[in-house]
Amino acid sequence: MLSCTPPAIPLDPVSLDRPEGAGALLLGWARLESRASLPTQDARFVLALGQTLLEHSPIVLFQAGLPGRPAAMLALCRSAGVLARWRLPGAREIYEPGDALCRDEETAGVLARQIVAQGRPLDLDRLPAASPLIPALREAMKGHGWLRLRPAAPCPRIELDPTWGEPESHFNAGRRSDFRRAARRAAEFGEVSFELVTPTPDRFDALFDEAIGVELQGWKRQAGTAIASDPGKEAFFRAYLRSAAEAGTLRIAFLRIAGKAVAMQLAVEWAGRYWLYKIGYDEAYARCSPGTLLMLHTLGAAARRGLRGYELLGEAEPWIAELWTRDEGQCLRLRTYPFNLRGAVAVIADALAWIGRRMGRAGR
Question: Which fold has domain 161-307?
Answer without folding.
Answer: Aminopeptidase (3.40.630)
